[in-house]
Amino acid sequence: MEDAGEMKTPYLIKVCGITNPADAVAAVDAGATAIGINFFTGSKRYVAPERAREIADAVRGRAAVVGVFVNEPLESAKAIAAAVKLTYCQFHGDETPEYVGRFQNAFKAFRIDDAHRSIDFDDYHCPAFLLDAYSEQEYGGTGRTFDWLLAREANEFGRIIVAGGLTPDNVAEAVDTAQPWGVDVSSGVESAPGVKDHNAMARFITAARAAFIRQTT
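RESULT FIELD:
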């Protein structure tokens, strides 16, 4: 994987579920610090590794490229990460601490319902944790929110990325409430699954960046 120099940035604004180079470039041009590419074959936003490399190359050196995996066999995930030259791997499934520990730059995602006390953050040694809304049917991209105060409490365990139901209209409130290191959006800036609305992306990123700047000044 590529060197994770982007971790030095004071905050992360990630547009996930990118499925084509044009959307990737539009997100980064608008100020996104990371894009996410989904390698879970059960996702409506799945991208084959060979296509993912083309997307990643379109923004290489300008933003972090994050690969999203769900219970992917270890060697397969490693091969994809190397082929696409991912900056980070983001794990949304039931991956064990031992599995996640095999990756130098990993985000572990947890789905939150009404608490996070059952999550063993300390078992995972990651640059950041992503908190998403719980769903029995899907591993992410549901458009649902959760209690952002739980994310704020989770800051004691490390850098937190808030996901789940974020939109241009509520991301500032999410940042103000959760005080996270990062935010992650997918369905909230789409005209259809995997098709990004460039205007919505720009509005989301502008609102998120303004909220992060307020938080750090």
